[in-house]
Amino acid sequence: MSSHDVCIVGLGPTGLTLAHLLARRGLSVIALERDPEFYGMARAVYTDDECLRILQNAGVADELHAQMNTGSVVQWRHADGSVLAQFHNPDEPHGWPVSNFLYQPFFEGTLEARLADHPQVTVRRGCEVTGFTQDGDGVTVMTTGETVRASFLVGADGGRSTIRRELGIEMDGKAFPQRWLVIDLKAKDGTDPFRHLPYFDFVCDPDLPTVSCPQPDRRHRFEFMLKDSDATEEFEAVETAHRLMGRYLDGDQVEIARQLVYTFNALVAQRWREGRVLLAGDAAHMTPQFIGQGMNAGIRDADNLSWKLATIVRHGASASILDSYQAERKPHAKAMIDLSVFNKDIVSTQSRAAIRARDVGLGIGVKVPGLASFITEAKMKPKPRLKPGYLGLPRALPRLKRGVEGSLMPQPRVRTYAGTCVRMDDALGHGWVVLGIGCDPREVVTDTAWDELDATWGAFYLPGTRPQGQPLIEERGHHSLVEVRGTSLETRELVDLEGLDHALVPWLRRARAATGHVIVLRPDKYVFSVTGPGQHPRAADAAREQLGL
C-alpha cells in the first residue's frame, strides 16, 4: 500500500493545479484519474488575472500564458453587429492581463507534463476509485489498481463526483433545462475565417442567442441557444452547424472539432468537507458557462486548500483550519454562479419588455460617469475578498468594509536589491510573507511564529525611497541583536524590494499602511494582518490561535 500526504481524485484543471501547488509546498501527492487519456476537447475557454497569479505561484503561468490569446475585448452586441456594451480592463493589478482565452487541451496537457518536475507527485491514469474509508490518521482509498493511503483525500472528480456521492452529500441550486449547442472550430490551412471575429461576443439576438469566442491556435467556438421546439438530433447534425455558423463565416474554411448539445447547472454542494475528505472544483460547485468562471473557481479552490493542507502536514497546524475552506470559498463561488446566471439572462432574454429595459439601461449606463467604468471595466465581477470568518485579523470596521484584511494584495512589478525586475510573488515565494512597508520587518517583529511557518521576510519601498547612506544594523548602536531560535536576527534573510511605480499607493492608503507598518500575507497572498508599531504581537498571537500552533 502506497502512502502519501494527499490523494487527489480527478486530473482536470482543479486536480492538476492542486497537485502543482501541494508539490511546491513540499507535500507528497498521488493523483488518481479514471480516464486513461485526456478527454482532448475544449470545455473551459477563459481564465483571468487572479487565476494566472495562482498558476504563477504553482510555477507554470509563463508557459501556459504563452499559449493564450490575451487582453481581448468582451462585449454584448446585437445581431446586426451594433455594440450594446464593451468591457476591457487594460490594468494589471495582479501582474497579468485580466482577459485571457485558452485552448483547454493545451492547458491541461502542459499542466500534466510539468508534473514530471515534481518527483513527489505520482500520477495513476486508468485508475477508478471504488471506495474509501477514513480514520483519525488518514484515508484509505480502494481503486481498480491498488490501495492508497493518504493523510487527506480531495475529490476533484467533476460534477458527477464519485467522492461526493460516496459521502452522501447533496447539492443545492438549480439545474437548467435550457439547451445550448456548442461548436468548436479549427481553421483549415491557408484560410483566415476568424479575422473579423476578434472579440468575445455575447450576441443578444432574441431569435438565436449566440456566444462567439476566439481561441488560440486558429480556433473558435460558437454556442447557440435552442428553442423548446428544436430537436436535439437536428442540432447535432453537421448540416445544422453549417447553417448556423454560416451567419458569421465561410463554413468551407473550417473543420468541426466538436458539436454537442448540452444543458447546464448552477449548484453548490451542501458540505465541502467531511473529516479528512474534501471536495473541490465541479465536485463542490457547478458554474454555468456564461462568464467563463467554472474552471477558475476550481483553481481558486486549489489555492485556498493547498496552503491549508501544507500548514497542517508541514507545520503541525490543527486540521480544524480546513473548516475555513468552505467558509472562505463558498460565498465567492456562489457570487460567480449568480453573476453567470444573470449574464445568461441578459443574453438570452426573449421578452420584448426585458429586451427594451436591457438596451435602454446599458445605453444609459455606459454614458454615466462612475457607472460607465463599472460596466466597461467589468467591476460587477465579484472581488477576491473574504467574508468575516476568514483566517486573519478582522477588519477594523467590517460593516463599512474598511481595511484590506481578508483581501488579495495586488502584485506590482518590483526591483530587487540586485537590480532584477520581477513580479512581486516571484521574489517573495509561495509561502507566508512578513512584509515591512518602508522598513526592515526584522527590526520590529521578534515573535518566532512566522519562523515556525517558514515565512519569507521582505521589505517593500516605494520608488526612490530605499534607505541610502545608512550604516548596517550592527553599527547603529542596536543593543544586542534579537535572538530567534537561539540565533541572531541576521539569520533571517531579507528580500529587499522597490516598486517600479506608485500603483500600490492607493491600496496601501486603504490598508492604512504607512512606513513602519508590517503586512503579513497568507501563502495565497490574501492579507492576514496589517499592524503598526507596537501592534505586531497581535498578528502572531492570532496566527497561533487560528492555526492551532
Describe the overall structure.
Helices cover 27% and strands 27% of the residues. By secondary structure, the chain is an alpha+beta fold. Among the domains are: 2-66 and 101-172 and 266-336, FAD/NAD(P)-binding domain (3-Layer(bba) Sandwich); 398-547, 3-Layer(aba) Sandwich (Glutaredoxin). Strands 1, 2, 8, 9, 10, 11, 17 and 18 form an 8-stranded mixed beta sheet that branches. α1 runs parallel beside α4 and α1 (13-24) packs parallel to α8. It is globular.
Provide key terms for this protein.
globular, 549 residues, single chain, FAD/NAD(P)-binding domain
| Poorly predicted sequence stretches spanning 5 or more consecutive residues | 473-488
Sheet with the most strands, sense and barrel status: 8 strands, mixed
- Corresponding CATH superfamily of the domain at 2-66 and 101-172 and 266-336: FAD/NAD(P)-binding domain
Report the C-alpha radius of gyration, rounded: 25 Å
Helix content: 25-40%
Q: Please indicate the percent range of residues in DSSP E strands (runs of 2 or more).
A: 25-35%
End-to-end Cα distance, whole Å, is: 31 Å
**DSSP E strands, number:** 28
